Amino acid sequence: MSSRTARKAQRQRDLLDAPAPRRQYVRMEEKMVERAFQLAREGYMQKSRGELTHWQEIAKKLKLAFDNQYSGGTKVWNCVVGNHFGSFVSYNTKDMAYFFVAEMGVILWKHG
């Protein structure tokens, strides 16, 4: 099995094994929300397996994916991931999601 095929199979297992996201506050197109959920669940499972060591690595993964996919590479997306934090952010209309995957909280928003 090639490494690419192995990574794809692992991502599929992760999506089956990861806890379902719980929406707290979401103002975003559904396809974008689903992409955020997918990336967050993959990151959560990678951290639970020890492949990632910090919440910051998951936040960076989400931010870079959204910058590239939904902003043409411009750096307008922001992301905070953790299990104990509060926030107050300014965001573009319909470009904000706050959700949990198990104990991991995620805030993803576009500003600018």
Strand line-up across the major sheet? 1-3-4-2
Indicate the proportion of strand residues: 25-35%
Oligomer: single chain
Radius of gyration: 14 Å
What spatial form do the alpha-carbon principal axes imply?
globular
Helical coverage, percent range: 40-55%
Q: Can you count the beta strands?
A: 4
Q: Quote the average pLDDT.
A: 89
Helix tally equals 3
End-to-end distance, in Å?
43 Å
Spans where pLDDT lies below 50 across 5 or more residues: none
Write down the secondary-structure element order.
Answer: HEHHEEE
What kind of sheet is the major sheet? 4 strands, antiparallel
Structure classification: alpha+beta
Structural description of this entry:
This protein has 112 residues and is an alpha+beta fold. The protein has 3 helices and 4 strands, in the order αβααβββ. 25% of the residues are buried.
